[in-house]
Amino acid sequence: MMDDATLNFPPIEEIEQLVAEGRLTELQAQLERIHPADIALLLDELETETAVTVFELLSIEIASEVLDETGGQIRQELVEKVDDERLADLLDELPMDDAAEFLEDLPDEISDRLIGLMEPEEAAEVQELLAYEEETAGRLMTRDVVALRRQWTISETFDYLRSLEDAETLHYLYVVDRDNKLIGVVPLRTLILSQPDQTIESLMSTDVASVPVTADQEELAEFVTRYDYFVVPVVSPNNELLGVVTVDDVLDIFEEEVTEDIQRLGGSEPLDQPYFAVSVFQIVRKRIGWLLLLFVASTLSGEVIRLFQNELDLVVALGFFITLITGTGGNAGSQTVATIIRAITLDEVRLSNLGAAWWREVSVGLLLGLAMGAVGIVRALLWNTGYEVALVVALTLPIIVIWSTTVATVIPIVADRYRIDPTVISGPMIATIVDATGLLIYFSLAKLILGI
What we know:
3-stranded mixed β-sheet, CBS-domain, Tetracycline Repressor, domain 2, 3 domains, MgtE N-terminal fold, mainly alpha, 23 helices, single chain, 6 strands
């Protein structure tokens, strides 16, 4: 964790003392010198009541930015304890795409109440954004976009820009026709370096990269990453300019997608809201389905053990290595699936090069398996299990590692090919499959080598 000096705010104890002694004017002066993102981190460190008091001291401009930067429990506390009228004023101050993102994380009842208290124009824009399907470009875009006309001169364009009250970004200036259809783009740098009497049409590039309003947010993030854009125009099916998505929104997408993937890798459905805003029963509902499915799948391991019960009764020492065998297979599979899913995300691995990826992972699995087998045979001999059982363990470990890397390589790639999120069927599911099949391999080798 970064220290207070790094984050550019006074020690927590000093702030708590200022609040306790009622020296709020002094504290307010200090807060004005701190960046809103740092204030949001500061609120996370404070007790709830103190955090709310500090938040109430902020001007509406700073408070709106702080509200946008907060997350998790402190955001929930602010929504519960700050007056609705003030919250609505803060949402009016935010860019409408950020306001929409804030509201979509709230329960419908609270969200509707706050929208009803916002200024009519801002409320209408937020409702329009929320009407688009979740996780699409339409939900993420802002309508505060600068649109130019091709016949304008540079001088006229600058007069127009000076008249604007607000704009999300001016990195790129988009050109539209009389029907608001996107026909060109002019970088701000080009505009600044041009002569006053030149026209926009003479400067604009007609090769404009845009995304449809229905584009999935993952596709949008990949688009921005591939072409290194700061901002991307969003268009209707008729190529009308509807808004723009900026790079800060794309960074939020990456954070959201990574969070979802981590939760799915753990065998749980992603949470729709910040952690502390979700009730215990909602968390249970998100987890119970996969937990029951994995429970049923895990019974396969029990079935395999039951199938070879006679062999276990004859050679009790085989039971010593059950957890070692299943653990090694599961761990090797987890390592592989994490690498493969990351490669799929970066578009480095796909169905067309499945064979190359499989051979690479099998080669790694063979070397790892041989190393684990060497350690395994030493462990078995130290437990005085006899040479034959030690040989079974030494042969099983390389085979199970190769098998687990195969499963962990093939399943995510095939799932991605058929547009199934590979994280959904990876992690615990692959480990469960490897456990059952690994035991089958282990006991089959034991039966063959020991002649039982």
